[in-house]
């Protein structure tokens, strides 16, 4: 997941001609490791449902080193970017920790999970690099934001379908509320919109349109072939690799 976030930050830097901004790239990479491990293991640790095995100790040590790296690169950010970083840190904490007595955390707010995660990804991978480099907020930037939100939203739909049997029914994920078939229809429709939005670009380029069309088709295929019996690795490896391949393609052929 951290590599996917890193790849999307790199995509932002390519799209907006940003160079030598290592701070946002590594802040996003190491911050994702910390945030993901915190979200995944915090609740289990607090309820003492897991023992501190050698593997978990290794994960904790990796998270600690990543936290140090995150802090270091955070200090390299510009002042406004630091504020944005704090905002998304707060969202991550809200997503994980119950701040109010007898209240659930945001992760368990019915139907909100997918929007919170997609918002955080767009904020960190798009807005953070742009703000850190003092670039103006243009219509093209908001177009990219909309496309990226759609892409991440659909990728999360794939995770939701695969995790349908494991997720708490009270989460009310999209697939729980409308079923797998309708979820796939929503995802396909959104990916078509993802491609059509490219026509609104003030700097329309046929090669970008072709690349995003290929990206949309690949994502749609992963979505259509997803089901409750798929291995978790189907999503965690193949689906998360989509942003990485997109970035590498632009690096090689862009």
TrEMBL record:
Keyword Transmembrane helix included in the entry's annotation: yes
Keywords, in A-Z order: Membrane, Transmembrane, Transmembrane helix
UniProt key word Transmembrane: yes
Organism superkingdom: Bacteria
Transmembrane segments: 22-39, 59-75, 81-100, 112-131, 137-162, 183-202, 208-226, 233-253
Protein name (database record): Prenyltransferase
Organism expressing this protein natively: Flavobacterium chungnamense
